[in-house]
Amino acid sequence: DADVTQTPRNRITKTGKRIMLECSQTKGHDRMYWYRQDPGLGLRLIYYSFDVKDINKGEISDGYSVSRQAQAKFSLSLESAIPNQTALYFCATSAWGQPQHFGDGTRLSIL
Amino acid sequence: TQLLKQSPQFLSIQEGENLTVYCNSSSVFSSLQWYRQEPGEGPVLLVTVVTGGEVKKLKRLTFQFGDARKDSSLHITAAQPGDTGLYLCAGERGAQKLVFGQGTRLTINP
C-alpha cells in the first residue's frame, strides 16, 4: 500500500464546478504539502501545513483552499474551477528535517 | 520568474554516453535535492546535498553542490535506458519549503 495516497487519480470537470482533491498518509508525518505541476514549470507550492492547526499559503494559493482534517489527511479544494487550473497535483508529506515524500498525483482537467 | 533554472530542459542521447544536468540560481539554499519522476508517479528523492562543494555519488550518478550553495549539477556516466525519466532539482529555503527547477526530461536511446 502507498504511504501517501491521493484520490482521485484522474478527474475531468467543467469550469465553475467545485472540486476537492484528497490526500491521506500512513507515514505519521506532521507536515503536508500541496503542489501543482505544469509542463516546463516544475512543481509549485500551493499550500502547506506543519500540523493540524497550522495552514500556510505557498507560492500560488489564489483560487485554492485547503483543510487539514487530521494529522493524516490534507485536502485541496478548487471552489470554482477554471481551465488554467488544469494540471497535475501532488501531495507530499515530511517529518521535521526529513525529505518530502510524494503521492502519485491527481491529473485534473477543467473544460 | 523561475528561481531555479535547470538546463537542458530536454536531452536525448545514446546508451553509453555521459551527460550533465545543471541547476542554477542567484539565491542561496540551505540544501538542494535531486528527484527523479516516472510517468504517472510522484517525484522520488535521489539525493540531498547540504554543504557547499559537497559531492555525492549514487552508482553512476554524481551530484555536486556549488561552493556558494547557489547551484548544483548531476552527472551520469555511461547512461543506460533505465536512466530515462524526468529529473528535478529543488532548493530548500528554510522551513522545508522547496523551490523546484523546471525539470530535465532525459531520454537514453538503446
How is this structure best described in words?
Chain A is built from no helices and eleven strands. Chain A has strands at about 5, 10-15, 20-25, 30-40, 40-50, 55, 65-70, 75-80, 85-95, 100, 105-110. In chain A, strands 2, 4, 5, 6, 9, 10 and 11 form a seven-stranded mixed β-sheet that branches. Chain A has a four-stranded antiparallel β-sheet with strand order 1-3-8-7, with no helix packed on it. Chain A is globular and about 40 Å long. Chain B is an all-beta fold. Chain B is about 0% helix and about 55% strand. Chain B has strands at about 5, 10-15, 20-25, 30-35, 45-50, 55-60, 60-65, 70-75, 85-90, 100, 105-110. In chain B, the strands form two sheets. In chain B, strands 2, 4, 5, 9, 10 and 11 form a six-stranded mixed β-sheet that branches. The radius of gyration of chain B is 13 Å and the shape is globular. The interface of A and B includes residues 44, 48, 58 and 99 of A.
Task: Provide a brief overview of the structure.
The complex is a heterodimer of chains A (111) and B (110). Chain A has 111 residues and is mostly beta strands.
Share of helix of chain A, binned: under 10%
Q: Beta-sheet strand percentage of chain A?
A: over 45%
SS summary, helix count of chain A? 0
The count of β-strands of chain B is: 11
Oligomer: heterodimer
Properties at a glance:
heterodimer; A: 111 residues; mainly beta; 7-stranded mixed β-sheet; 4-stranded antiparallel β-sheet; 11 strands; B: 110 residues; 6-stranded mixed β-sheet; 5-stranded antiparallel β-sheet; 0% helix; globular
Which helices and strands, and how do they pair?
The complex is a heterodimer of chains A (111) and B (110).
Chain A: E1 4-7, E2 10-13, E3 19-25, E4 31-38, E5 42-51, E6 54-57, E7 65-70, E8 73-78, E9 87-94, E10 101-102, E11 106-110
Parallel strand pairs in A: 2-11
Antiparallel strand pairs in A: 1-3, 3-8, 4-5, 4-9, 5-6, 7-8, 9-10, 9-11
Chain B: E1 5-7, E2 10-14, E3 19-24, E4 31-37, E5 44-49, E6 55-58, E7 61-65, E8 71-76, E9 85-92, E10 98-100, E11 104-109
Parallel strand pairs in B: 2-11
Antiparallel strand pairs in B: 1-3, 3-8, 4-5, 4-9, 6-7, 7-8, 9-10, 9-11
